[in-house]
Design a protein that fits this description.
By secondary structure, the chain is mainly beta. Helices cover 12% and strands 39% of the residues. The protein has helices at 9-19, 40-43, 125-130; strands at 20-24, 29-33, 49-55, 59-61, 66-71, 77-81, 87-92, 104-106, 113-114, 119-123, 137-141, 147-152, 158-159, 164-170. A hairpin with a 5-residue loop joins strand 5 and strand 6. The longest helix has 11 residues, at 9-19. The two termini are 27 Å apart.
Amino acid sequence: MGLFDFLKGKDKDSVQETKEAKVYAPANGKLVSIEEVADPVFSQKMMGDGFAVIPTDGDIYSPVAGKVMSVFPTQHAVGIAMENGIEVLVHMGLDTVELDGKPFTTTVTEGQEVTSSTKISTVDLQALTDAGKDNAMVVVFTNMDKVNAFDMIDSGSTVSVSGDIGSVTAK
């Protein structure tokens, strides 16, 4: 066995497998591409690539397995670090920071391990509508320098909480 044979075959493949991680629907509803989100900060990928779900109910779950790195004081957003080093922002609704947390009951805490079956928040969708806010649940990979590829099922698909919608692969 040569000095660098460990880089070939099975060992290399198993390393690559850990770089790819499944991405799940954070809510029941309609899957939309990031370009369709009605906010240029997201749709023009200024914060990174990703997707959104237009929810049919207010139960919001983690779209990835990882560790909660931040819960915004206004409870409208949660940051999650995946094991492969990719960082994910779950932003609940558009322009919702100014609602000062009122429509959100965010239940995760910093340092908590989460999976696709972890409910991270309950959002009062009627309160968002009453406040004139878009209810898109946006998921963005914020450190694109660490992302090799993001693949997602077709935009417009109806998705269910924890349903597999694609994968993200780290460099």
